[in-house]
């Protein structure tokens, strides 16, 4: 197999040839056809997440077909198309797993972070954490659903029944969840970097009622806001934009420090919450709803060997929609 491997913190990924991995007990080997490029991959490459053990192969929005199944795998068969998400394993024993909160497991594994991911031609996955995708949609178009869509969905659920919903950061997750929210009958307000007219135009094309810079105020208070951009300064901006009793959801795994802000922005029962990872049920729910909502991803495919250049483009805000790597 060929893989883009991160050998040390803040190093460029490099292509390596490795022996074809063999699946163990309860595992599957997948030939990868597409892997989405997520902002979390940047956090791994830039050593912004704790406890990374290098070398590591990033990537956790994986679409591919099963080549081999390990012992005791009964849910999948060779040839099946599957999606492999961020959550790659949970212990099933800790308090959080027992109480239905496996996203908060005390001993999890995460694809592309604590176990090798999808910037490769093949990968090994726990069969229990591989979603069946069936046939139909293009693999490249499906890939962003495996994280941008899934984490986006969990954040949308946490936002509650907000009729006026603000999305701060209109990239991969924002443009997917905007479609679901609009299908649900909500009014979407899209906030982008100042001057990012391409993302603002995309938001309007998808049906947003308003699109502007993240330091602007909407024409009326929001019921809730979701922050997808990893910028802590957006927290007080979003609190300022929501009504009394409104909720701000921080959807990223990593965010820059949140600056100090006056208590008045939080007062009147405004709420600030975070999203951590996902559950398998989140995946099943979203993958059922996405086709009903007519979700179509805005994607650009790049060869796997261009991974470093694509990550630089993402870092600089030069990706419209979502980027996807293909081996």
UniProtKB/TrEMBL annotation:
Cofactor(s) needed: Zn(2+)
InterPro entries noted in UniProt: ADH-like_N, ADH_Zn_CS, ADH_Zn_typ-2, ER, GroES-like_sf, NAD(P)-bd_dom_sf
Protein known as: alcohol dehydrogenase
Keywords, sorted A to Z: Metal-binding, Oxidoreductase, Zinc
A single MF term (Gene Ontology): alcohol dehydrogenase (NAD+) activity
Spans traversing the lipid bilayer: none
Cleaved signal peptide residues: none
PROSITE patterns: ADH_ZINC
NCBIfam families on file: adh_fam_2
Superkingdom of this protein's organism: Bacteria
Location of the Enoyl reductase (ER) domain: 8-325
């Amino acid at each position: 197999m060929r893989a883009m491997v991160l050998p040390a913190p803040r190093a460029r990924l490099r292509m390596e040839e490795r022996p074809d991995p063999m699946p163990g007990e309860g595992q599957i080997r997948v030939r990868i056809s597409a892997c989405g490029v997520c902002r979390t991959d940047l956090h791994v490459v830039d050593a912004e997440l704790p406890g990374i053990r290098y070398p590591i192969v990033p990537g956790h929005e994986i679409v591919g077909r099963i080549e081999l199944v390990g012992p005791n795998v009964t849910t999948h068969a060779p040839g099946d198309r599957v999606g492999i998400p961020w959550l790659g394993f949970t212990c099933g024993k800790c308090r959080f797993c027992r109480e239905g909160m496996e996203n908060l497991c005390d001993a999890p594994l995460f694809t592309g972070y604590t176990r090798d991911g999808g910037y490769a031609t093949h990968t090994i996955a726990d069969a229990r954490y591989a979603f069946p995708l069936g046939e139909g949609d293009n693999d490249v178009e499906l890939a962003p659903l495996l994280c941008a869509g899934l984490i986006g969905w969990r954040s949308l659920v946490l936002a509650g029944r907000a009729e006026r919903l603000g999305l701060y950061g209109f990239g991969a997750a924002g443009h997917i969840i905007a479609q679901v929210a609009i299908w649900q009958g909500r009014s979407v307000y899209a906030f982008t970097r100042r001057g990012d007219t391409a993302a603002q135009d995309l938001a309007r094309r998808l049906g947003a009622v308003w699109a502007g810079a993240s330091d602007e105020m909407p024409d009326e208070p929001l019921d809730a806001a979701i922050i997808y951009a990893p910028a802590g300064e957006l927290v007080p901006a979003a609190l300022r934009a929501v009504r009394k009793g409104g909720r701000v959801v921080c959807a990223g795994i990593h965010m820059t420090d949140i600056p100090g802000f006056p208590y008045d922005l939080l007062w009147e029962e405004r709420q600030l919450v975070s999203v951590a990872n996902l559950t398998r049920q989140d995946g099943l729910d979203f993958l059922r709803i996405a086709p009903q909502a007519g979700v179509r991803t805005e994607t650009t495919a790049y060869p796997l060997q261009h991974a470093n250049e694509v990550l630089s483009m993402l870092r600089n805000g030069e990706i419209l929609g979502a980027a996807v790597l293909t081996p």
